[in-house]
TrEMBL record:
Lineage: Bacteria, Pseudomonadati, Bacteroidota, Sphingobacteriia, Sphingobacteriales
Family stated for the protein in its record: Belongs to the LysR transcriptional regulatory family.
Keyword ATP-binding: no
Signal peptide: none
Name of this protein: LysR family transcriptional regulator
């Protein structure tokens, strides 16, 4: 073997692995298909392993190819982050941080955190992305996010967490609901209602926690609608399409025509946590964590 593997070989492999079609991959790369096939063959000879199963009908990754694609995706993600950081440093910035968050983080800590960060570390750039818990966990694992504000039961392996705020729950009712002004809430009074809840895509562990509230009260709710967006829940409740159960902190910051009845008497609590990947070497990680810990 008289050639060296270069970054372009891995880029070609990545493109074929995404397309699972050599002609389409060649078109994306603006190279001839025979040349692409030759580059893949060189890669397979270098690793001494077949990376694709090819026949006239389809192209599939081999087990070695599946492993290599995961590693190559991670590599190119790291290269992208390196490029971002180098550009920021060249602009005189310390770092660039990508933060994921769910809606309740906006009411709980995020605004003050951003104010403190800008005051204490003005050379850090921040990009905000409102994402569900599950999407944040996936992106954190892949180092596509630097931090995530999530509601989960357990911290996944490879990630670290700091609890930010522990909430009780609140029942959300339309303004004209006959029980909207009740002082002592009995959830059994609402067992015939339709419920609008955060879906499992928001967080499977959070969804299970909410369902345990109904289980403790001895009834299975009629879940009419599910969403990952708090404002959508409030608007649907305001339209009379059902009632909802949400973390109590969500009653702050939204101007909607609903009432909140506190469920502080039930044992269930939900914790908003800050998560990050312990292998993430972004220089801004330490700076943001220092600010968060001062706010605790």
């Amino acid at each position: 073997m008289n050639y060296q593997i270069e970054l372009r070989h891995l880029l070609y492999f990545k493109t074929v692995a995404e397309e699972l079609h050599f002609r389409r991959a060649a078109e994306r790369l603006f190279i001839a298909q025979p040349g692409l096939s030759r580059q893949i063959k060189q890669l397979e000879e270098y690793y001494q392993a077949p990376l694709f199963i090819r026949d006239k009908k389809k192209v599939e990754l081999t087990p070695a190819g599946i492993y290599l694609k995961k590693e190559v995706d991670h590599l190119f993600n790291q290269l992208g982050k390196m490029k971002d950081q180098v550009e920021k440093i060249a602009e005189g910035k310390l770092a660039s941080l990508k933060l994921g968050f769910i809606g309740s983080a906006v009411q709980a800590i995020l605004p003050q955190l951003l104010v403190n960060l800008k005051q204490q570390q003005p050379l850090i750039d921040i990009t905000l992305n409102e994402l569900s818990n599950e999407v944040q966990l996936d992106k954190l694992a892949k180092n596509e996010l630097d931090f995530g504000f999530v509601r989960i039961k357990d911290t996944p392996p490879g990630l670290q967490s700091i609890p930010i705020l522990t909430d009780h729950f609140a029942l959300v009712l339309p303004k004209n609901h006959p029980l909207a002004k009740t002082k002592k809430v009995n959830l059994l009074d609402f067992q015939e209602e339709s419920f609008i809840l955060f879906s499992k895509e928001y967080s499977s562990s959070y969804y299970d926690l909410v369902m345990s509230i109904f289980k403790d009260h001895g009834f299975q709710p009629h879940v009419a609608l599910k969403t990952v967006n708090a404002l959508s829940i409030f608007n649907l409740v305001a339209q009379g399409l059902g009632v909802a159960i949400v973390p109590s902190s969500l009653k702050k910051g939204y101007h909607t025509h609903v009432d909140f009845l506190e469920l502080s008497h039930i044992p269930q609590r939900t914790t908003l946590s800050l998560l990050w990947n312990q292998e993430n070497r972004n220089p801004g990680i330490t700076a943001l964590l220092a600010i968060v810990r001062k706010m605790e």
